[in-house]
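Lab channel / #folding
Pinned by the channel admin:
"Please post every new chain as: sequence first, then the structure tokens as a reply. Keep commentary short and put observations after the output so the thread stays searchable."

First post following the new format, from NK:
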Amino acid sequence: MKKFVFSAFTDEYSTDFDRQIEAAKCFGFDMLELRGADGGNVADMTVAQIKGYAEKLRDNGIGVSSIGSPLGKIRLDGDLDAHMESARKIFEFANILGTSNIRMFSFYGTDDTPVTQCRQQVIDALGRMIDLAKAAGVVLCHENEAKIYGDIPERCLELMNIFGGDLKCVLDMGNFVLEEVDPWDAYQLLKPHIRYFHIKDALAAGAVVPPGKGEAQIQKILLDYAADHEGTLITLEPHLQTFGGLNALVGKAFDNPYKYPDCETAFSDAVTKIKELLSI
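Reply from TO:
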């Protein structure tokens, strides 16, 4: 078995799904994580669209590692009933595409109450989603990100412990850097709960940079994990060209030293850098 199974958010290469498949084949990906295609987010797609994408992927020998859903990226005073219906649909998509992994988040607070003071509401909402996931035979994989409940490792671990094996961890080392959290310490805390990794590097000053050029300790963490695990799933999410809202998200202003003329060049450089780091 391979030491690493390589996936990517190919929508960062192109919004056109056919070109995403071309990129996956060109760069030698085993799989892709479906988040967006042909100008739409996966949450807004139809069953017919998903079946069409599934057929194209099968014809080209590309699997789906996970659904890169926006589930949990909603305020707790939003329409949670509609959000759960969206979850049902996304879980159906996962079954069509042949993956059990659903990337998701742990909610935002409200104008009046920060999410850190909404612990029970977060737990209740996640519990509803987990019940739906279990019924559909899929696994919720929580990504750490700024401003949600699980933005720091201690709260991520809290959620994993509450829900046991029903909630897994997508470890994003770069996102922890942007929260000024040491990624190695976060990894050690969350290691038993990790389902797979998102590959994004960053500087705590407020910039996303190519893999190996920041403070995310990607090489150290992945090699340590792979020493005890066969077929470690890694999903490239470089955010080098496509994520113009970073400064607003993390509340920092920093002029990124790495600049690219287009998405394809940025994505290609990220692929080269991660393969160099891991000797793939």
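NK: The chain has one domain: 4-278.
TO: also worth noting, DSSP finds ten helices and twelve strands in the chain.
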